[in-house]
């Protein structure tokens, strides 16, 4: 059978490789020609999330990519893995889903399966995608099958990947659910959990990520309070972790990054308004998480003041700009806001990140530099914002003047010469 994957990004590319490895012929679709070219050269531009087998899948002809959506007519099933961002007004932007749906509708044929994988508000599959597909004249559940199945890619996770992570599938009709579930069972190793509608599957994904967002917000609020009370929040969390049931550790940090956790809950907030409901918990957690960058800069200012050094003119080494450890993704990274704030205060920023070459923060471009004793010794303050494994924490501890650690990254380091403080 031939499977199509629309959208060759963080979700689509690994999924396409897994489907090809399972023996399907895979056609990857993307509107970005340079991405299509890179896939057809076996070049993986998504980092560790994509299995190294991409090149082999291309060489054996098992997988190929194209910008020509008319090839949808050749596929038996298609997974839509396009972005579902929030627009400028914090409203869900489903234009990519709609555009993909319109393209697919042009080439929709009997018995075809379409699965939406993009994280979105409950109702999208049936209210937005289904009408676009049925405009073809084909009827869902009879002529073609439509389901929703959320992606659960966790960048940097060495244990769980596209293949072994359990998958939830909800079809518009029972037949749709069955057809979709059997397609996933033929590709994935993990459990395929069938639910009674796309809305259940859409909502469970939002619950997963909202759960993380709110609990990170709790950890951040506790960190702010513990700082005022002179209590080590990290020791508190490690102690709470000894409870073997009913507690799950989340940690404070410099803010909430990534293209999912900070964004997905606001899909629910937006939809809830339709029912005149105000998702207060989500909004308050969002306020707390969004406050962390300025909290970090405020703490940095206080440390520098101990040396009579104003932020203005201070040299601040910012260690780690990716949104979380050991990945190169910068999307929504809270460090971008921290860098922009430091710049506004007139600090000189020395960005260090082995996974990121250059980035834009505020309206300025930055090039990262390598970590060196020179960088450490000439900086007034070292801000540890992303706890990459590649950093030599002992070197930093020995050569930095002052360190503000937002990730408890030095927990393994016993001797720290620098003036050390953590979140
Ligand atoms: N963070 C904290 N404290 C924590 C955990 C995370 O500050 O205790 C921060 C991270 O530094 C990062 C942000 O939150 O900036 C999000 O990190 P994350 O690990 O929750 O998530 P993502 O966005 O890389 O991927 C998550 C997946 N991760 C986990 O569940 C661990 C998974 O929830 C989803 O598959 C994915 O979002 C998605 O695509 O929805």
Automatic annotation (TrEMBL):
UniProt GO MF annotations: NAD binding; oxidoreductase activity, acting on the CH-CH group of donors, NAD or NADP as acceptor; oxidoreductase activity, acting on the CH-OH group of donors, NAD or NADP as acceptor
GO biological process, alphabetically ordered: polysaccharide biosynthetic process
Pfam hit, one: UDPG_MGDP_dh_N
SMART domains, per the entry: UDPG_MGDP_dh_C (SM00984)
Keyword Membrane attributed: no
Residue ranges of every copy of the UDP-glucose/GDP-mannose dehydrogenase C-terminal domain listed in the record: 317-412
Record keywords: NAD, Oxidoreductase
Protein's UniProt keywords contain RNA-binding: no
Similarity-based family: Belongs to the UDP-glucose/GDP-mannose dehydrogenase family.
Name recorded for this polypeptide: Nucleotide sugar dehydrogenase
Species name: Polycladospora coralii
